[in-house]
Amino acid sequence: MCTVLPSVGCASPYVEGFVHDVDGNPLEGARIVLWRSRVRDQATTDAEGHYTLSTSYYSRSCTVYVFYDDPGTGGYDFLPSARSYGDLGDVDGLENFTLHPAATVELQGQLRPVEFSSEVSEYAFSVVDPVYGALLRYGDCALIYGPSRGSLVSVLDLPHSAIAVPAGSAFMIRVSPPYEVERGWMWSSIMSDYGVRDDFPEFDIVEDGGFVLGEGEVLTLDIGKYCLGNDLGKVEALSERMEENLTRFESEGFYTASQRHQLRASRELAESSRIQMSQEMYDDAYVDLKEAWLKLENINIKMEGLLTEAAFSVNVLVVFLALTSYALSTLLIDADVGKSILTGVFYAPMLAFLYYVYPGCRAVTLDWFTAVSVASLLAILIVTRFRPEALNRIRSGGIGLLDAVVSVSSIAKRNLRRRKIRSGLTLVTLLALTMSFVALTSMSTNYGLIYTSLDDRTPGIDGLILRNPSYDPKADYVEKGGGEEGGDRVWSMIDAGNFRPVTDSTVEWVLRRDDVEEVTLKAESLPSINSYFRAGAARINGVIGVQTGKERLLEALDDCVVEGAPLRDDGTCLVHVSLITGNITQVGGYITLSDRATTPFRSSPTARSGYPVHRLEVVGAFDDGILDVRDADGGDLLPQKQETTAYRSTTFVEAVSCLPQEVVITTLNSSMALGDVQVSRLGIELSGTVDSEVIGKPLARDGVPHVGEVDRLPVRYPDPKLPGK
Prior knowledge:
Shape: extended
Number of domains: 4
Number of strands: 35
Mean pLDDT: 75
Distance between the termini: 80 Å
Largest sheet: 11 strands, mixed
Number of helices: 16
Helix content: 25-40%
């Protein structure tokens, strides 16, 4: 084995070289990283800029990255560099690197494209030539940053929002989905199929033909500003496309008054967003632009639905006209051949009238319309001419269907010939009613964004309550395994009553706003059949976690304490007074709660040994007055549990509120230590001058699972002065 620099034909277990700046000065402390899917080895240069890197493992098809930054200066000092190798062990001679001076761009704000319901979590920042649009590279190092796998952030462990850019050269920053720059079209397609790709149209951050920064200079940019500018262009382009579509629909006879109203409202919101962007009111601009996008998406969805329904109605009407033509010919002629000819005579002009008058015919091609028309007529003639016995098999009261139709037709024929004027007026009335029905059903409905203003439940508070909706409260329950009570079982159930927790990203977004005075979290346990605690007949099925230093309901909770002290410290709890009088526990004692996320289902207390438990000191007891305590939006304070209900051979799971004696109240930190406790409510206290809608609407829209199908927002406004509809 060679331990010195290799000569020709001799592979070395390491490679070495020097790192200098453009003036030839050695860089001490530069990082050398051997990368092949992940970091395989790394080294640091000495005072002479010398490094030694092992090539014992994963030396084939690898890349060596070099980066240096003086921690005593602000921003980046040098651009990273890299060199790719087919086999690092075959390197002959020193591998030296020269690092070029850099400047720094710090990106602030959030990347929230209007087509997304929440902030984008993965994206890439590429440093690009503003003239040719080419990605800038230094050696084999592409300047790609951002929270994306394979970017320089993951390779060199750099901050997500700080970008090293070339000093003294023009550049711009391209924001794009991560898989577009990492693996190419094939990987992008695979990730899209599995639904894990944050896909949005890329856009450029650029001004005046490109940015030019001096060595060591730091530039701070708001990514939200440029994202909004790109989104405004998308909204305006979509608005123009919707205008063209509506004009075409109206020219073909469709009723689009509701969509026209939504389009006008969308354009007004887009213009309002443009004005707010010019005033650097980016959060307000995002609210209006998001609502404008939702209205346009709603128009698109409704028009697609209108086309689908119109195409289906054409098929139904064609069959109806074929039946009508045959019925008319039956009333006038008895001979089969003449009846078939007369059916075609009636059928052809009615089809022509339908095709040129009915707007739904524009939703199908002429070939399809012709094929359905011919097939419908032939099917009716064949069934009635050659298989009449098939109709007579359908009997009612001993009379076949065909015989009944013939008898009724004979009576109708005589009445029509006897009362010609009345028959004509009746047919005209039926035709008018039919066309009126078609006209009314062709009118579309406007489904917009609706939010509700609630009565003031908590005087003196101006703010918002965010509470995400629950799942379906009732679902099938099936036992998959067997065994005695307390034994191991396998159960399968739908999470009845489970709520969607408030996410950390939502809390962080609210906390970043200057107009938010205070944020209060309330946590509660997810509904479950399993219990936290069992002792005799006593059960603990629910847990509530409150922030004792912030919670506005704390005074009401203190009023319910009838024994001991109120709740204040982590590691303590309040229980119902029945647990004290029943000698289950006592004030100053402890209660042990099982971790339901890991404990076997419905296991006995003795079977729970070895699984996580949480001991809480009982500092006080509350009474049934807890039932009268309501949240700021009037919601129940007590959490829910699951109960089973048997009906015949099926057992159902139903979510119901816990009884007061089944609940433990503790601090937020103590409750979150339990495995299945989540934040269920976010209270947002605002400053006196802020408009609640600015925060409320984007929060609500970010919680909507299907864009364009929003009927009610999960945000409730306790301030009665807030306008709403």
